[in-house]
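Recall from the previous chapter that SMILES is a line notation for molecules. Here it describes zinc ion.
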Amino acid sequence: MTGVESRNAGCPVKWCDETGTHAVHRKYLASVPGAIRGAGLVGVNLAQRKQPRASVCVELTVTTPWASTAGHLFAAASVPEIAAALTEAAERATELDAARHRNGE
Ligand SMILES: [Zn+2]
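With both inputs in hand, we obtain:
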């Protein structure tokens, strides 16, 4: 048995990282720290509900020590627009923060 086969024991979906019983196939792609209070992770996964004809989606999760993990599934086609909006929002936030610092706030 290879390592890949043992890692996916029990799930027939080749790209799925989940083991044991699960309702959603999931591949964990990235885990990014970045919460304001310094504790918390944003996860980016591939996810597909175990339903007939369910499409593979992009899942964003937020994990913090003080609340249960929240997740949301996005249609793959909508993700570039969301990513562009996030990037623009981050640029604006950085500019506004820099302006505040220049003004001595
Ligand atoms: Zn699976």
